[in-house]
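chain below, 338 aa
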Amino acid sequence: MKNKNFKFNIIIITLAFCSIAINSCKKEKEKSNSTNGSIPVIATNEVSNIKQTSVVCGGVISSDGNSLVTSKGLCWSNDSNPNISDSITNNGLGAGSFSCTISGLVPSTTYYIRAYASNTNGTSYGTEKVFTTKKDTIHDIEGNVYHIVYIGTQSWLAENLRTTKFNNGTQITNITNINDWHNSSANAYCWYDNDSISNASVYGALYNWHTVESGNVCPSGWHVPSYQEWNTLINAQGSNANCNLKATGTLVSGDGLWLFPNYANNITGFSALPAGYIGSWGFAGLSGHARWWSTSEIYSYGVLCTVITTMLNDECYKNIEADSQSRGFSIRCIQDSL
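prediction:
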């Protein structure tokens, strides 16, 4: 009888010990889970360098949740609260900061974006940011469409103006006789060689000074640049200013509109073309000269002139000079400051 009681007591003690051990393991496991079971902590950076089809963004992972971050990046969508089932980047493993360029976006479109980070415990997201890509085109009062190019802090039309109306709908006078052009005290435009079929859509119109000083020839929200604005554009390009701004190719090679040689790379996308001009003797410079008005006036040898920007086929250096207000030049519009 004593032996049976002894065995029974041993069994009870053993069961109690096992119960304690099991509970201890459960508590240890729960403790372990509470330490290693969290998702990463991540913040979304501000969106920057917003262009027509691309932006720069990133994130900072301040805690990996005591578990290796197996993927991190950005997710974006046209709807709020994007997640990893939407468009994403994958910026590798581990905590810390990351940044990348997102491309292939649609111009003039609003997007929602968040940084994300994943580990074995799940995925976390940073604060949502919202941005709208820039426009890639604009139209004038007549419906002519122009591409926009963003260079530094400036926004320019990538084509010469070709409207025949002011932005309030008023008609600009079409003067085709050179003598009448020089003697006119009213606004005027014409096409090079008075040939709208060959030259209007490619080179745009040539305008007189009276049209420029009206202040409303460019599309609403845009204007004829000042000397200072031209200078900002050109100085930013350094010693190769005109090469960086001119369209590439030559007539002789069949891949462009400039005379040979054309020193150009057009890395800015400004795409300057040799539209020619109206001089004292008539039309000149097609295929070899690009000249644009500014709004800045200056006296040269006692005569009130206007500062213009000139580009030639065989030059790369900066060329801003004073010229007669009786001539006819192209207009390249710049966006008003926001």
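The chain has two domains: 41-132, 137-335. The radius of gyration is 34 Å.
thats it, cya
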